[in-house]
Q: What sequence folds into this?
């Protein structure tokens, strides 16, 4: 190994250990790793600059502002209140319909505020019908995770994999290119949750489950988050809501038609909302979510170090010999499984950045298209079902529903295996080797 590869491997190990340990903020850990790589000249300043100014960062920041404008306008709260009335008429069927709608919304909006708003509704309506909220809160979180993978902008994971693939010389994905695969995975996962979820989750309330319904406006944001990011009781403003929704629809349409790159369309939309006064400048800055953006930028630098030093290619050399005999499907299963495992202990952004260069190098070494391997990383990096701490929405419902840790293992581990199997079956159908 070269000195650069040794440094890159040491920094990677230290960053992974820091993320698992969890004592330091994840964005601080990622930025520290990037600083070491830059200070040791393992990566060049121009590469660090490109990471912080990447299209994925710009697109995410702009989409955060647009989504926050929709929240501040009271639009999301209005939709949730309408869903509450629907549940009152349809009973348990209405609850499942709300869960499906939250999953669909997550294909275009950040799923954390959706769950923050939707979880108390699901909990309180379930209690009003003498049903255990535990039957519905975990499925709500899982539905938003599955829904987020359905478009390129539904989750930061997909945008990151797309950006890393572009850096590796691969063609970029269109907005809905992964939708057929993700929809099939989500549909099978949804059937599993409806059929087996209530049986696997205990109907009896846990000792630490909160008693009595809480009003929607009384939701406490997750620990460490700025309460201003969750304007759950924002009054409905038709003008601002219409403007924010209109801009969002135009951004999605322009990106879907290929008229502008996603980053350019989203940036123009966010700036338009600011200059027209539909969202205040101070509020736009609040909606940027810098802790997420800096984590992603730092991890992109760590991921680039694996590529520029040749560490990613070196890591695949030992695999290629026996994988070439087994075939690309086994290599795809290996990448999918490794991503599934790592995303339960690391952030999905970190996993996407770390495994994308390896996925591309492995595919190129096997002489096949990297496309199915990139899609596998996209799907698997968001599939954090088996622990309550693998994804932020899991943490939210874990606290609200009074679940035990093993509740997530019981329902989430089989879902991981199911989505793995379905992904391996359908990815080659839409993205041939």
A:
């Amino acid at each position: 190994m070269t000195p650069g590869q040794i440094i890159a491997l040491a920094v990677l190990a230290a960053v992974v250990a820091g993320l698992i340990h969890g004592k330091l903020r994840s964005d601080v850990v990622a930025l520290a790793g990037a600083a070491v790589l830059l200070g040791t000249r393992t990566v060049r300043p121009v590469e660090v600059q490109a990471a912080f100014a990447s299209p994925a960062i710009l697109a995410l920041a702009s989409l955060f502002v647009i989504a926050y404008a929709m929240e501040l306008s009271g639009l999301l709260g209005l939709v949730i209140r309408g869903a509450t009335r629907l549940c009152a008429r349809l009973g348990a069927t209405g609850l499942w319909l709300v869960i499906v709608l939250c999953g669909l919304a997550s294909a275009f909006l950040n799923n954390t505020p959706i769950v923050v708003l939707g979880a108390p509704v699901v909990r309180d309506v379930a209690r009003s019908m003498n049903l255990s909220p535990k039957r519905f809160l975990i499925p709500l979180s899982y539905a938003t995770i599955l829904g987020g993978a359905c478009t390129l902008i539904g989750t930061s994971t997909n945008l990151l994999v797309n950006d890393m693939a572009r850096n590796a010389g691969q063609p970029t994905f269109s907005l809905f290119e992964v939708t057929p695969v993700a929809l099939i995975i989500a549909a099978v996962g949804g059937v599993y949750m409806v059929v087996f979820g209530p049986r696997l989750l205990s109907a009896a309330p846990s000792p630490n489950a909160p008693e009595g319904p809480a009003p929607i406006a009384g939701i406490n944001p997750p620990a460490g988050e700025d309460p201003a990011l969750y304007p759950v009781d924002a009054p409905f403003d038709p003008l601002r809501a219409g403007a924010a929704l209109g801009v969002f629809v135009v951004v999605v349409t322009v990106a879907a038609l290929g008229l502008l790159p996603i980053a350019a369309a989203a940036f123009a939309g966010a700036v338009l909302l600011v200059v027209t006064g539909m969202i205040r400048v101070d509020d736009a800055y609040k909606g940027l979510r810098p802790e997420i953006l800096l984590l992603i930028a730092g991890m992109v630098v760590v991921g680039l170090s694996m590529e520029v030093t040749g560490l990613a290619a070196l890591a695949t050399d030992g695999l290629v010999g026996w994988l070439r005999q087994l075939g690309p499907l086994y290599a795809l299963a290996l990448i999918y499984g490794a991503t599934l495992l790592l995303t339960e202990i690391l952030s999905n952004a970190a996993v996407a950045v770390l495994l994308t260069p390896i996925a591309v190098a492995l595919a190129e070494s096997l002489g096949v298209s990297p496309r199915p391997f990139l899609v596998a990383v996209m799907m698997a990096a968001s599939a954090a079902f088996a622990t309550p701490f693998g994804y932020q929405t899991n943490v939210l419902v874990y606290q609200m529903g009074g679940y035990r840790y093993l509740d997530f293992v019981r329902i989430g581990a089989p879902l991981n295996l199911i989505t793995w199997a379905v992904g391996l079956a359908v990815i080659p159908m839409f993205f041939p080797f």
